[in-house]
Specification:
The complex is a heterodimer of chains A (112) and B (114).
Chain A (H helix, E strand, L loop, with lengths): L2 E3 L4 E5 L4 E3 L2 E3 L5 E7 L5 E7 L5 E3 L5 E5 L4 E6 L8 E8 L6 E2 L3 E6 L1
Chain B lengths: L4 E3 L2 E4 L5 E6 L6 E7 L5 E8 L2 E5 L1 H6 E4 L6 E5 L8 E8 L8 E2 L3 E5 L1
Classes of the chains: A mainly beta (112), B mainly beta (114).
């Protein structure tokens, strides 16, 4: 069974700050790891994905994530956040892009 | 940005009524997924299709939902007899390939069952 854990339910930062949203997973086989963003009342927007190769993957709007096999982690980072980055961020795991298993989400609040 | 279209955006039904929502996947995407997101941000996979064929579905979907992806028509998901617990955001996602490509999501249909 795949599990995805996002340890922080809420993260608050100021505009221009860097941010890291944490994600840990457990799964024994080959998986795709992704991050999605959901603005209030809207659908999920794809940010980035990792399957193999360079463990640091670049996504849209300046986001990047780093895969660590030893830590079973796939943390999302951004060097300088903007107020429009305020949203809920979901870490996701899928075996061979089969059904997605989502984490509980991290609510990011960016204060001006 | 995703080009998955979902209609209607909002749906209000009484208990026992049918609730039907539609999804047009991105052009050229033969794989379609439906998920349910409740108010606690918990996601539940419901069903997926490759072209017109159902590949996987959960027990709840098999018993109380009907879903299809006919050729040259929107995909649809219908709750046969709505329950209060069905109130949620229903998300449709499409992918270009069964094993490898990203799932792109639509804006969702928010169902409220009174």
């Amino acid at each position: 069974t795949q599990t995805v854990s996002q340890s922080d339910a809420h993260v608050t930062v100021f505009e221009g700050d860097s941010v890291e949203l944490r994600c840990n997973y457990s799964y024994g086989g080959s998986i795709y790891l992704s991050w999605y963003i959901q603005h209030h009342g809207r659908g999920l927007q794809f940010l980035l994905k990792y399957y193999s190769g360079n463990p640091v993957v670049q996504g849209v709007n300046g986001f990047e994530a780093e895969f660590s096999k030893s830590d079973s982690s796939f943390h999302l980072r951004k060097a300088s956040v903007h107020w429009s980055d305020s949203a809920v961020y979901f870490c996701a795991v899928s075996p061979n892009n089969n059904r997605i298993f989502f984490g509980d989400g991290t609510q990011l609040v960016v204060k001006p | 940005n995703s080009k998955v279209i979902q209609t209607p955006r909002y749906l209000v039904k009484g208990q026992g009524q049918k609730a039907k929502m539609r999804c047009i996947p991105e052009k050229g995407h033969p794989v379609v997924f439906w998920y349910q997101q409740n108010k606690n941000n918990e996601f539940k996979f419901l069903i997926n299709f490759q072209n017109q064929e159902v590949l996987q579905q959960i027990d709840m979907t098999e018993k109380r939902f009907s879903a299809e992806c006919p050729s040259n028509s929107p995909c649809s998901l219908e709750i046969q007899s709505s329950e209060a617990g069905d109130s949620a955001l229903y998300l449709c996602a499409s992918s270009s390939d069964w094993g490898g490509d990203t799932q792109y999501f639509g804006p969702g249909t928010r169902l409220l069952v009174l």
